Amino acid sequence: MRLLLVEDDEMIAETVLESMRRLGYAIDWAADGRAAELSLANGVYDLVLLDLGLPKRDGIQVLNTYRKAGGAASVIILTARDAVDDRVRGLDAGADDYLMKPFDLDELAARVRAALRRRTGQKQPIYTHGELTLDPASHEARKDGVPLPLVPREFALLQVLIEEPARVFRRAELEEKLYGWGEEVGSNTIEVHVHSLRRKIGAEQILTIRGVGYRLKGLE
């Protein structure tokens, strides 16, 4: 899942970015309304965290333009505006949820999970591949029914692979799915994550396609 944070307050942005990345989300940041519109034009986001009081272009205008252009990502408005009229305008413009500042990061995370579940159709599917199962909603992965102690990046990597188990993912594709703009990604970062995940789920579970990338092993 890829998220976009639209927030002009750098301190709030850094806190939210760190929290979402710690949970395993790839998240990008736009600091004004115009940058948000340019980012949303790419059509790569599953969810948008949108402030209303933005420079260059108001958050409601950004949301209106996005929805009129057919943008389908879930949108959670994050704002200090507490007037009922502002909340109504945001929801009428196409927001899925509304969270007042200051907010608790755990509540934000719960609202993000709920919005993503609704976007994928009531409940996210539970993925199964051989002895591996992964439940995005509960953020649990198991092998032969035994819980796997995966850190967020390992969980995110396994989710990418198990969603399309027959596909070979290039390193650049995995970097794009696991990291947001501006995050430092070392030349061997993906290899480190793959190695770590293999230790927990079994080295045979992830195949290296030489000169191409990685995929899950085939089912017999």
TrEMBL record:
One GO CC annotation: cytosol
SUPFAM superfamilies, A to Z: CheY-like
InterPro entries, per database record: CheY-like_superfamily (IPR011006), OmpR/PhoB-type_DNA-bd (IPR001867), Sig_transdc_resp-reg_receiver (IPR001789), WalR-like (IPR039420), WH-like_DNA-bd_sf (IPR036388)
Protein's cellular compartments: Cytoplasm
Modification type 4-aspartylphosphate: residues: 51
DNA-binding region(s) from the entry: 124-218
Keyword Oxidoreductase carried by entry: no
A Pfam family reported for this protein in Swiss-Prot or TrEMBL: Response_reg
Domain OmpR/PhoB-type stretches: 124-218
Biological process (GO), any one: regulation of DNA-templated transcription
Domain Response regulatory stretches: 2-116
Keyword Transcription: yes
GO molecular function, one term: transcription cis-regulatory region binding
Superkingdom of origin: Bacteria
Membrane-crossing segments per the record: none
Entry-linked PANTHER family: REGULATOR OF RPOS, TRANSCRIPTIONAL REGULATORY PROTEIN QSEB
UniProt-recorded name of the protein: XRE family transcriptional regulator
Native source organism of the sequence: Caballeronia mineralivorans PML1(12)
Lineage: Bacteria, Pseudomonadati, Pseudomonadota, Betaproteobacteria, Burkholderiales
